[in-house]
Write a structure and sequence with these properties.
Chain A: Keywords: Cytoplasm, Metal-binding, tRNA processing, Zinc. Chain A: This is Queuine tRNA-ribosyltransferase accessory subunit 2. The complex is a heterodimer. Chain A has helices spanning about 70-75, 80, 125-135, 155-175, 190-205, 220-235, 250-260, 265-275, 335, 340-350, 355-380, 380-390, and strands at about 1-10, 10-20, 25, 30, 55-60, 90, 110-115, 120-125, 140, 180-185, 210, 240-245, 260-265, 275-280, 310-315. By secondary structure, chain A is an alpha/beta fold. Chain A has two domains: about 1-265, Alpha-Beta Barrel (TIM Barrel); about 275-285 and about 310-395, no CATH class. In chain A, the strands form four sheets. Chain A has an eight-stranded parallel sheet. A three-stranded antiparallel sheet of chain A has the order 1-2-3. Chain B has three domains: about 10-165, Alpha-Beta Barrel (TIM Barrel); about 190-255, no CATH class; about 260-310, no CATH class. Helix content of chain B is about 45%, strand content about 10%. Chain B contains twelve helices and eleven strands. Chain B is globular. The chains are: A alpha/beta, B alpha/beta.
């Protein structure tokens, strides 16, 4: 595996990542979400052509504890073969973005608690690595003892110690022939000192990169920024950095601005579940008024009509006669073939095709967002892009950076 | 829909049977209670045809007065005669006869005399195609095939015959042998959502514990995307738990049905239809236990299946 930083803009960087399989990516890169190895609603045979960058997926080893068993994955020859996603990057992330609730429960020396198909249970090192080795992922995170920021100091210290010990243990259990693919976890929750300590320890290990954990758990946005900064300052510049738990556009921008290279995000799927289409503009040159409809934002910010610059509520009766695509000019499968009125009809008839079509578009749009981010870094305009993006999200009202994003 | 291929719309008549506790059927039309807001909705033959004209499908169905096959007594006769009166109203209301083909639906329950009267009446209207309706509703298989046989015998040779609501592969093979051409059913996708895959031997219940370690594809003779990529063991873990499980098994089941149609079609064209039927039955009934109703139907259809009643050696 090779990772090379190609361009910088502030702390944000564009890199090229070349995996052992030969697959190449430009970072920062979005990892698409899977459950049991497959996308949630997008037909697997459509994934390859969804977008030029739709080649990288996240998966959760905890989905392969029982159902299917690690043995089933091993027999198939790994998760790529099991899910028939050869030609994709499959990155193992312990945290299940869709279902898991991190509660800061007690963990023993042997493992931490995770949500599995048979309920919450402690997953130990041997088991975790059995699954990881059976799956043969392109990259995998070490077993984390991830806690939220509100846990007591003692528990937080313990989580840093556990995580560091478990990183070493995971490395000792990894299959040598799979090469250096480990992303060492960095925790530290509510304490900047602990965060720095965790990062320092991980930095000395022989890993392919790092995975920053303990975010997206209701922490203060400014605090999150400090934690990212403090951790990354201790990590080598030339290794990959992944973060889990951050997925909204503002969170992505904050993470990328701090120097993150890989994110898995449930944001597209969260919108799809709420029957929303992602529509925010991607180019700084586009005027704030919606180019499609030339409408001024209404005093209720479009709540009644389901209109906003960022998202479109396809259930709204407004779209019952709107024959335009979700986003005019979008080249995704859905926008090339279908209109808002059709998706509105599908949603009102409770047809699952609506979710599939929306998810295809939302994933495409988010991949375009990541591309726009990379372009802005290459042009050394990341800061301008971030400022423009966050300001246009609220119709030009002043946007207080310390407010958390509300989806 | 951006669907450039053929489309067929139903009239709304089936809902009369499936939502019967909501319906009041009069000469004028059918009154439903709207499932959305509870307000009464009247659907007349004219309404049904107008809506179907707007949707624009290639084949549209007449609004018929459908009764449950298990109904007995004068209601069955009333429904049959009303269907004939309504077909005239449908024909009169049809504003796009040169673009959309209006099919009449043969009713009459399980009574051969009523079916005869209905057949005669519909054939006299010289419609572009005919459906055999009022079946697939819980009647015994023996009564079912006899009605299909009577209708195919009484319908014109040179027009499509559409048996509504039929979807079990065995039923389709039997009806095809009796001279039917078209079928529709929710069965393939519904059974997929419950974790059952359609295969040459019958139905594979993916939820069964044995599937957890079965690394074969769903059907060894199937070339669909799902059978090329996924094993039973993996699908076992997906069905009833992930939306993707339903999607993948539905995909296979639909492919399976399309392959069955292709096989029926080409075997007839190539003059080897009886051989196809024999091979189909041998795969489905390796112990030779072909049901009596199938044997009787094949008798009338003129297909020799005596060899299918002998158990296959292991």
């Amino acid at each position: 595996m090779e990772f090379t930083v190609r361009a910088c803009s502030g702390h944000g960087r564009v890199g090229s990542l070349r995996l052992a399989s030969g697959l190449e990516f430009e970072t920062p890169s979005l990892l698409m979400i899977t459950r049991r190895g497959l996308p949630v609603v997008i037909p697997p045979e459509m994934l390859m052509d969804l977008h030029p960058d739709s080649r990288a997926c996240q998966f959760t080893p905890m989905h392969f504890l029982e159902d299917p068993l690690a043995a089933v994955v091993a027999k198939a020859g790994g998760v790529h073969k099991l899910a028939s996603l050869t030609g994709f990057a499959m990155v193992a992330v312990a945290r299940d973005s869709l279902g898991n609730e991190i509660a800061g429960e007690e963990a023993s020396n042997l493992g931490a608690s995770f949500e599995t198909s048979s309920g919450r249970r402690i997953v130990g090192l041997e088991k975790y690595m059995e699954v990881v080795n059976a799956c043969k992922p392109d990259l995998w995170v070490s077993l984390p003892d991830e806690v939220p920021h509100w846990v007591p100091e003692k528990r937080n210290r313990e989580s840093v110690d556990h995580t560091s010990q478990w990183l070493d243990h995971c490395l000792s259990l990894q299959h040598a022939e799979h090469g250096n693919r480990c992303l060492g976890v960095v925790v530290g929750a509510g304490s900047l000192e602990e965060r720095a300590r965790s990062a320092e320890q991980a930095a000395t290990r022989n890993v392919a990169g790092f995975s920053l954990a303990g975010f997206g758990l209701g922490e203060d946005v400014a605090q999150r920024g400090f934690h990212l900064e403090v951790a990354i300052a201790k990590l080598p510049n030339d290794k990959l950095r992944h973060v889990c738990g951050l997925g909204s556009p503002e969170e992505v921008l904050q993470a990328v601005g701090a120097g993150i290279d890989l994110l898995d995000s449930t944001y597209p799927y969260m919108l799809t579940k709420e029957c929303l289409a992602m529509t925010f503009p991607l180019k700084m040159e586009v005027p704030l008024r919606n180019a499609d409809r030339d409408m001024q934002p209404t005093p209720d910010h479009g709540v009644a009509s389901g209109f906003s610059l960022a998202k479109v509520n396809l259930r709204s009766a407004t779209y019952g006669i709107d024959e335009t695509p979700l986003v005019t000019g979008c080249k995704c499968y859905t926008c090339k073939r279908h209109t808002k009125v059709y998706i509105n009809q599908l949603l009102n008839s409770n047809e699952t095709l609506a979710q599939t079509l929306l998810e295809i578009h939302n994933t495409y749009h988010y991949l375009e967002f990541f591309k726009a981010i990379r372009e802005s870094i290459k042009a050394d305009k990341f800061h301008e892009f971030r400022t423009w993006f966050t300001s246009q999200r609220v119709f030009g009202m002043t946007y207080d950076v310390s407010e958390s994003f509300v989806a | 829909m951006n669907w450039p291929r053929a489309l067929l719309t139903d009239s709304g008549g089936f809902q009369m049977v499936s939502l019967l506790h909501l319906a009041d059927i009069t000469e004028e039309g059918v009154t439903f209670q709207s499932p959305v807001d509870g307000k009464p909705m009247l659907l007349t033959p004219e309404d049904s045809i107008q809506i179907q004209n707007k949707i624009g499908a290639d084949i549209i169905m007449a609004l018929d007065d459908v009764v449950k096959t298990t109904t007995t007594g004068p209601r069955v006769e009333e429904a049959m005669y009303r269907t004939l009166r309504w077909i005239d109203r449908c024909i009169a209301a049809h504003s796009r006869p040169h673009e959309q083909n209006l099919f009449g639906i043969v009713q009459g329950g399980l009574d051969p005399q009523l079916r005869d009267i209905c057949l005669e009446g519909l054939v006299a209207r010289n419609l572009p195609g005919y459906a055999i309706g009022g079946l697939a509703g819980g009647e015994g298989k023996d009564a079912f095939w006899r009605v299909v046989a009577q209708c195919t015998a009484g319908l014109p040779e040179d027009k499509p015959r559409y048996v509504m609501g039929i979807g079990f592969p065995l039923d389709i093979v039997v009806c095809t042998a009796l001279g039917a051409d078209m079928y529709d059913c929710v069965y393939p996708t519904r059974t997929a959502r419950f974790g059952s895959a359609l295969v040459s031997e019958g139905v594979l219940r993916l939820t069964h514990a044995a599937m957890a370690t079965d690394y074969r594809p769903l059907d060894s003779s199937c070339t669909c995307m799902v059978c090329k990529r996924y094993t039973r063991a993996y699908l076992h873990t997906l069905v009833t738990k992930e939306a993707m499980g339903s999607q993948l098994v539905s995909y296979h089941n639909i492919s399976h049905m399309m392959q069955l149609s292709r096989n029926l079609h080409s075997s007839i064209l190539e003059g080897r239809f009886p051989e196809f039927v024999q091979s189909f039955l041998q795969k489905q009934f390796p112990k030779g236990d072909v049901p009596d109703w199938v044997c009787n139907a094949m008798d009338v259809a003129g297909i020799d299946i005596s060899m299918c009643r002998i158990p296959q050696s292991a």
